Amino acid sequence: MGIFAGLRRGPDRGVRSEWQASVRAAGLVPGALLGWERTVDDDYCIASTGLLSISIGTPGALTWRHIGWHLIERGGYDRDTATLHWQLYDEGNGPESGAVRLKDPGRLPGIFRDRVAASIAFEQFIGLDGARQVKGVEAGVIVSGRRDLSRPDSDISWHASVPRGIDWNVPGLRELADTAIIRLKSEYDPNS
């Protein structure tokens, strides 16, 4: 596809129309299309200013999944497997992850990284009292205030996550996360 494939051509009109209809039906605002690529399964991966969209099916009968950049806790591109992967914030049902293998990554890995970073309004690590370490990693939480880039007027969403190597079973982490979110939200979010 080349480095500028998503800029010059974009997906064909039928696919783009299906994507736009799906976004509208979901009540989302995607913003400008930034890049797209085909997956190894001949599906589509579209990155817009507001959303990451993944299709399954065939043109004319595509089903789309749209993910707001602010919901992605972590992710990236694995060059060895040509896989774009992500993990969403745990909203109480356990962490949800996803991945697509791309035929040609084009600009998508860079767009992915930039859009996730653009959604971060605030981020701070807060260590657990006593500075305990688990497997060489300081126990604590990362509190993030994230912007929904598909809705500029939306409130900041606040999340807590743990560093790699730490899990939520460490005593005191959930309580630390709850109090830290309340404190930081009141300090840094004028709309709360």
Write the layout of secondary structure elements.
Elements: H1 5-8, H2 13-25, E1 33-38, E2 44-48, E3 51-56, E4 63-68, E5 72-78, E6 83-88, E7 97-101, H3 108-118, E8 120-127, E9 133-134, E10 137-138, E11 140-146, E12 157-161, H4 173-188
Antiparallel strand pairs: 1-2, 2-3, 3-4, 5-6, 6-7, 8-11, 9-10, 11-12
List keywords for this structure.
single chain; 192 residues; alpha+beta; PH-domain like; 2 domains; 4-stranded antiparallel sheet; 3-stranded antiparallel sheet; 4 helices; 12 strands; 23% helix; 34% strand; disordered N terminus
Describe the structure.
The protein folds into two domains: 5-118, Pleckstrin-homology domain (PH domain)/Phosphotyrosine-binding domain (PTB) (PH-domain like); 120-188, no CATH class. It is built from four helices and twelve strands. It has helices at 5-8, 13-25, 108-118, 173-188; strands at residues 33-38, 44-48, 51-56, 63-68, 72-78, 83-88, 97-101, 120-127, 133-134, 137-138, 140-146, 157-161. It has 192 residues and is of the alpha+beta class. The longest helix has 16 residues, at 173-188.
In short:
This protein is an alpha+beta fold and 192 residues long. Helices cover 23% and strands 34% of the residues.
Distance between the termini: 45 Å
CATH architecture label of the largest domain:
Roll
Assembly form of the protein: single chain
Q: How many structurally independent domains?
A: 2
Question: Radius of gyration over alpha carbons?
Answer: 18 Å
| Mean model confidence by pLDDT | 88
Structural class: alpha+beta
Low-confidence stretches: 1-8
| Percent of residues in helices | 10-25%
Summed up, the helix count is: 4
**How many beta-strand segments?**
12
Name the strands of the widest sheet in spatial order.
1-2-3-4
The major pleated sheet works out as:
4 strands, antiparallel
CATH class of the largest domain: Mainly Beta
Strand content: 25-35%
**CATH topology category name of the largest domain:** PH-domain like
Q: H/E series, N to C? A: HHEEEEEEEHEEEEEH
Shape: globular
CATH-level-4 superfamily name of the largest domain: Pleckstrin-homology domain (PH domain)/Phosphotyrosine-binding domain (PTB)
